[in-house]
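Milestone M4 deliverable, item 7.
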Amino acid sequence: MGNTSDDIGDCSLCEIKLAFFKAFIVADECANFDKALNLRENIMPALLANTSWTDSLQPIMACTLPNCFPVCYGQEPIYGDIRLEDVRTRMAELGKRYEIWVAYAHSAILLVDDIPTLIENNVVDFNNPKEENIRRYLDPNYFNGESLCLADLKGLCGTLNVV
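Output delivered:
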């Protein structure tokens, strides 16, 4: 994948296995989502049992985001743990879309125990993905076999090899 250096003749490539490109689930109160995201239906209260949102008076929604993002030529890649404020700030400086992505990725990490519960509550069944449920609650453009696979519970984790 591409050259991340501005120096002529200085090639910096990295290898990312295609299997690592997936979509991870983000869920939160509707009011906390950026308007730029294409949200679907509110998650039914019965599906929120045993989560942080069990007693929420606000509607809860979910979406999927890719666990990867492009770094354009000339941009300095950001390295580090997105749980750290400094790393999130540096990512946000790359642009508005990066700021949105890192905020939701951080949210997904903080709510890592709630996503498996949503899955157990049948919002999504990874063993038998029902396209209609995925399109209903997560991604209106999801088509099995064509869309990014939904990441398992370690959806934000991946490996990057600099070559």
